[in-house]
Request: fold
Amino acid sequence: MRDVTKDTITEAFLGYFGDDTDPRLREVMGSFSKHLHAFVKETNLTHKEWRKGLEILQRAGEITTPERDEFVLLSDVLGLSSLVDMVNSSEKGTSSSVLGPFHISNAPKMEMGSDLRGKYEGELILVEGRVTDVDDNPIAGATLDVWQTAPNGLYSSQDPEQDTYSFHALFTTGDDGSYRFTTVRPVCYTVPSDGPVGDILNATGRHPWRPSHLHYIIKAEGFKSLVTEVFPEDDPYLDQDTVFGVRSDLVMRYEPQAAGTFPAKGFDLSGKVDGTYSRVDFDLILTREPAAG
Reply:
């Protein structure tokens, strides 16, 4: 098309696709171009604003490292990550929530009942629950990749004082589908705001805070993998999570427990806890993968 105009550029773009273009790629790129071009026309985007947008992407690339992905963080604060989660979540299973930019692969395998605290002090919490299907049948052999911040509000990938896999663990459920471990209560924290994402938050009058949470990735053969987080009901940022990760079914309660009530067996700390602690009971429900064909 030689005479491309603002009214025909989207048609021209779609017309350049080859006949052998993957149908799904054609659908996604076609919709993306329509909305992107409509955005420019609706806002009368200026050259200065266009260049600023490109600068944000360039700076995001420059600041991204294996330990910090500014593009994921940008997706998070724009609500894109959570929207993708919600579009792909099952109505019957536990809701998914954002992975975040600080997950580390290959967490060490640990036995059920292990203690994740390491050298750190803080409120002791006992976390347990079951991994089940939507009919409440336990799922054996499910893996739970769990991680959280340290009491200073930093993930291990952000903090040179922490070991690489500090507050990270991989558990595998037995026949009853149960899981359990101890750790310190995670704290609310701010997402990194020293880069282009921080500039966006500042320019729009937004804070960088996230409510405290525990991260999970649950996988089991024959089931859809679940990436999620769980949040305490008393967190001050529960209703204004800067990455929009909170869902009503992911809100739990820390139940205070009296001294002398810690389980006598089943935990690394059994027989070693003589003070108060808190308990979290949270079940995780997986949905089955669609049948092939």
